[in-house]
Specification:
The complex is a heterodimer of chains A (253) and B (380). Chain A has 253 residues and is an alpha/beta fold. Chain A contains 6 helices and 11 strands. Chain A has one domain: HUPs (Rossmann fold, 3-Layer(aba) Sandwich), CATH 3.40.50. Chain A is 28% helix and 25% strand. Chain A has a 9-stranded mixed beta sheet with strand order 9-8-7-10-6-1-4-5-11, sandwiched between helices. In chain A, α3 packs across α4. Chain A is globular. Chain B has 3 domains: 119 residues, Acyl-CoA dehydrogenase/oxidase, N-terminal domain (Butyryl-Coa Dehydrogenase, subunit A, domain 1, Orthogonal Bundle), CATH 1.10.540.10; 108 residues, Butyryl-CoA Dehydrogenase, subunit A, domain 2 (Beta Barrel); 146 residues, Butyryl-CoA Dehydrogenase, subunit A, domain 3 (Up-down Bundle). In chain B, 53% of the residues lie in helices and 15% in strands. Chain B has 11 helices and 10 strands. Classes of the chains: A alpha/beta (253), B alpha+beta (380). At the A-B interface, α2 and α5 of A face α1, α2 and α6 of B. The structure holds flavin-adenine dinucleotide.
């Protein structure tokens, strides 16, 4: 049979500190696990994987990387009109692109991103596509025509059976991504990416970008962590006693 | 550096960086201390393409360009100079001569073993009595029926302790001076190829650098690489490329030292302020960063010239000379910035300092490089 999998990925600003590194955008590290999930499913069931990313041209690097990791096709949705999209407008665009990629069986997102960590894009896109979605998936097993997935939430392990087509957001703990090598790089750059813009998707300017967004980030400031540091002194066992007392007082144990 | 690198170059750099941070950085201190060659990591690197960086795909390589190659060497060396050396020597002076001068049969036979990392390559030119003056080598390969019988002694063979394929430089004609030297491919396990004890080195300690002896070692005449007598020109062509890799290696070590120095100088306080606030140190860091930048740029230039098919040996010699010299300076300054802690094994700078030192010696000393560069400028 074979399943068609779509993985939505994004780039983040590199965390490079001392200006010594030459790269500025990199694949959201959480997306590696999500791509690995897709690769494993394809290894078992056959089919294709398409990586999809909406963002500025610099996001191409993540799609290239996804292709080097092993996805079959990379699509960048990029144009000026899309700039300033909030999560809802982004989901709207992704949904339109995914519709264009029909038929598909599975749409994967990462549960988190390493930068603006809203966790909204996956669920919103699934709603727009009227797909069932399980969020924060931490383990996946293949059934006959379905997947068994687990999510660990609030102290409970939930186990679901989901049928295709479906959407999942993958928690990083689900799987350890494989190491990336160099053997495919040359052919990835020979093949290149596909680039779509909002008109390719049949979207109106007013539905996307800043105009199409229903929320606007008004300000951004760093908050101080309410974290205090306390030192335990004395002998080892004495320190352990103090630590236990302190944790009891805080209701932590 | 963005302006000099293509999207592909940058992706290569990032992939190498990611791998080295996770797989190499954490073990670098330990393998240096124990002088241990990390086979498990090397096996993985083999699967990922690190041992066939510029080899064609048909031979199992990644078909990348020279800029990609030096970016990879720089990233590995930033984590561990000994592994950077292993990969650099394997790809440049061992694998490249086979790809450039080997016959189709030779390539088919040996290249896939090398590009997969299943066999590591070694380059055996230096001898106890012939270092800077490679034309003084005394090893002999006497042609006999369809065999060569090799006798001689090789010193300082990088990867010597673990290699599967050795390129041996030996005289096939004792009377013909520079034109009497040839290269022979000798596999580990060939009777008469004796891998000697490992050198106890000051730096790059995780690389099993050894001596190699050849004692009536017989190899079929099909193991001759290129023509008889072409040995030195093959060797020098390989070293032209090798030197860009050493420039990148030295720059990688210097970068590691610079980053440690910056980190430490911000967190160590003396006289009530972070030591980075003392002008003497911030000026030192400015100098170090400038040198590292210049060294990287020179290496990128040499690599770019090669990729464009232009002559690059002068640029390669200059890059290797400059980068190895500043690597010693920068690692020395980084150690100084760490004060007493820099001299202690509990910080990595002393390793960078030891590792940087050798880059001024191998693949041609700084003095020899100046000779080569001067000759290039002024003629003989
Ligand atoms: C860790 C390590 C790994 C190595 N790996 C390899 C390898 O894989 N394969 C290989 O073949 N070799 C290898 N070498 C050998 C290396 O290339 C030689 O050490 C180097 O070429 C210098 O030769 P030498 O040690 O015999 O020094 P010498 O040639 O004896 O030089 C001693 C000093 O004299 C100077 N000198 C020599 N001639 C001149 C001149 N004409 N003008 C001015 N100064 C001069 C030198 O610069 C140096 O300062 C390695 C060396 C080391 C330390």
């Amino acid at each position: 049979m074979g399943v068609n999998i779509i993985v939505c990925i994004k780039s983040i600003k590199s965390t490079a500190s001392q200006g010594q590194r030459s790269f500025s955008d990199e694949l959201n590290p959480h997306d590696r696990a999500t791509l690995e999930v897709a690769l494993r499913i394809r290894e078992d069931l056959g089919g294709t994987i398409t990586a999809l990313s909406m963002g500025p041209e610099t996001f191409a690097t993540s799609l290239h990387e996804a292709m080097v990791i092993g996805v079959d096709r990379g699509i960048l949705i990029s144009d000026r009109a899309l700039a300033g999209s909030d999560t809802l407008a982004t989901s709207h665009v992704l949904a339109a692109a995914i519709r264009r990629l029909a038929p598909y069986d599975l749409v994967l997102f990462s549960a988190r991103t390493a930068d603006s960590d809203t966790g909204q894009v996956g669920p919103q896109t699934a709603v727009a596509l009227e797909l069932p979605i399980i969020t924060g998936v931490c383990s996946i097993e293949q059934g006959k025509n379905s997947l068994f997935v687990e999510r660990n939430y609030d102290g409970f392990l939930e186990r679901y059976e989901v049928y295709f087509p479906a959407a999942l957001t993958i928690h990083q703990s689900a799987i350890r991504p494989r190491d990336t090598g160099f053997l495919r790089i040359q052919s990835v750059f020979e093949k290149g990416l596909e680039c779509w813009n909002h008109t390719d998707l049949g979207l109106n300017r007013k539905e996307v970008g800043e105009i199409g967004s229903s929320t606007r980030l008004f300000s951004l400031s760093q908050t101080k962590k309410m974290r205090a540091c306390a030192f335990m002194s004395g002998s080892g066992p004495g320190q352990a006693d103090q630590l236990v007392k302190a944790l009891l007082q805080l209701d932590m144990i | 550096m963005n302006i000099f690198l293509s999207d592909k170059n940058r992706l290569v750099q990032r992939i190498a960086h990611g791998f080295c941070e996770i797989e190499i950085q954490p073990i670098a201190g330990k393998i240096d201390k124990e002088a241990h060659f990390p086979w498990d990591v090397v096996k993985k690197m083999g699967e990922l393409g690190y041992f066939g960086i510029q080899a064609p795909k048909s031979l199992g390589g990644a078909a990348l360009d020279t800029v990609d190659y030096i970016l990879i060497i720089e990233e590995i060396s930033k984590s561990c100079a000994a592994l950077g050396l292993c990969v650099a020597v394997h790809n440049s002076v061992a694998l490249y001569p086979l790809l450039a001068f080997g016959s189709e049969e030779q390539k088919k036979k040996w290249a896939p073993q090398l590009t997969s990392g299943n066999k590591i390559g070694a380059f055996c030119l230096t001898e106890p009595n012939a270092g800077s003056d490679a034309s003084g080598i005394e090893s002999e390969a006497i042609s006999k029926d369809r065999y060569y019988v090799i006798n001689g002694s090789k010193a300082f063979v990088t990867n010597g302790g673990v290699a599967g394929i050795y390129l041996i430089f030996a005289r096939t004609n004792p009377n013909n001076g520079n034109k009497g030297i040839s290269v022979l491919i000798v596999e580990r396990g060939t009777p008469g190829l004796i891998v000697g004890d490992l050198e106890e080195l000051c730096g790059v300690r995780a690389n099993p650098v050894s001596s190699v002896r050849l004692n009536d070692c017989e190899v079929p005449s099909q193991n001759l690489l290129g023509r008889e007598g072409a040995g030195l020109s093959i060797g020098f062509a390989a070293l032209d490329i090798g030197r860009i890799g050493i420039a990148a290696q030295a720059a990688g070590i210097a970068r590691a030292a610079l980053e440690e120095a910056i980190r430490y100088s911000k967190q160590r306080h003396q006289f009530g302020v972070p030591i980075a606030k003392h002008q003497a140190l911030s000026m030192m860091i400015a100098d170090m960063a400038t040198k590292v930048d210049a060294a990287r740029l020179m290496a990128y230039r040499a690599a770019t010239l090669r990729d464009k098919g232009e002559s690059f040996s002068q640029a390669s010699a200059m890059a290797k000379l400059f980068s190895s010299e500043i690597s010693s300076e920068v690692t020395d300054q980084a150690l100084q910035i760490h004060g007493g802690y820099g001299y202690s094994k509990s910080y990595p700078v002393e390793r960078y300092y030891r590792d940087a030192r050798v880059t001024r010696i191998y693949e041609g000393t700084s003095e020899v490089h100046k000779m080569v560069i001067a000759r290039g400028i002024m003629g003989n």
